[in-house]
Amino acid sequence: MLGETLRFAQNDTVEKPFNGVTYNLNYMKELEGKGAIVTGGSVGIGAAIALDLARNGAHVAINYRKHADEANKIVEEIKKLGRKGLAVQADVAKSADAEQMVQSALKEFGHLDILVNNAGINQDSVVWKMTEDQWDNVMAINLKGCFNYIHAVAQLFKNQNSGKIINITSINGLRGKFGQSNYSASKAGIIGLTKSVARELGKFSVNVNAVAPGLIETDMVVNAPEEVKQKALAEIVLGRIGKPDEVAWVVSFLASDKARHITGEVIKVDGGQYI
Fold first, then answer.
1. I need a labelling partner for 181 at 20 to 30 A (CA). Which of 89, 109, 175, 188 fits?
2. Binning pLDDT at 50, 70 and 90, where does residue 166 land?
3. Domain range summary for the chain, segments of one domain joined by +
């Protein structure tokens, strides 16, 4: 499985751990010259999204709080694809940081067209043991952070009469999960936020959608106890854990003109984990 090859158009070749299959993906540069922000873009799903947007032609800015080295590596990969890349140290929970990052991306790219709210954390506990700090920390990053960046781009997208906003939620925001009342509530809040903002910005030709991953092969999942992984795997109809790229492909589609008549939707990428 490891070291499998994904082949892209124009002789691009990327080594990826995939399911024993070589996927031939035709990158048509549908996001050519677009400016994008991806929060939490230094690792995991966020990094995959940032790179996939760049492969489709976008210039990409990512934020980080602690993972400076990882963020700089992603920016280098973006630049190798012939796109502009920018890493900004910014706390998504702080509105001033969000505003500053938007201005930095505008200065670097000349315009901004795509926002992907991906940054998120979990601090799990059953509700009777959960601390106020655990609740507040998750809400601040996952839900308030999403609001902060939407607020920072809303007037810009409204004025330019275009824009794509994609918020990363979770299937646990749709169904809830034992031991994750804070995380599930924050992700459910993102869904409500997505639908409300879609209504508010739709008349300005701004599309606002959410993507709800299920179990995805990130470092957190890889390092989880085997018993936990097997229990989650048993829920998945397709019988395998998803890959970060499989989330990224849906995000890139929603960021493209092919999705121009889709707004206010929540698209699950979960292999049938929650049907």
1. 89
2. very high
3. 1-30, 34-269
Q: What's at 66, amino acid-wise?
A: K
Q: For residues 147 and 113, what is the distance between their CA atoms, to the nearest angstrom?
A: 17
Helix (H, G, I), strand (E, B) or coil at 180: strand
Is 183 among the residues known to form the active site?
Answer: yes
Which of 23, 64, 183, 274 is flagged as catalytic? 183
Distances (CA, A) of 62 to 53, 159, 184, 201: 12, 23, 25, 24
Is 265 exposed, middle or buried (CB count within 10 Å of its CB: 0-12, 13-18, 19+)? middle
Examine the pLDDT at 120 and tell me if it is beyond 50.
yes
Q: How many CB atoms lie within 10 A of CB 107?
A: 9
Rounded percentage of the chain residues whose pLDDT exceeds 90: 84
DSSP letters for 185-227: HHHHHHHHHHHHHHHHHGGGTEEEEEEEE-SB--HHHHTS-HH
Contacts for 56 with CB less than 8 Å, ≥ 6 apart: 27, 28, 29, 30, 31, 32, 252, 255, 256
Q: Which residues contact 230 (CB under 8 A, 6 or more apart)?
A: none
CATH superfamily of 34-269: NAD(P)-binding Rossmann-like Domain (3.40.50.720)
Distance CA 242, CA 245 (A): 9
pLDDT (0 to 100) of residue 8: 43
pLDDT of residue 170: 97
pLDDT tens for 190-241 read: 999 999 999 999 999 999 999 999 999 998 788 888 988 899 999 999 999 9
C-alpha 121/C-alpha 92 separation (Å) is: 11
Total residue count of the chain as it appears in this document = 275
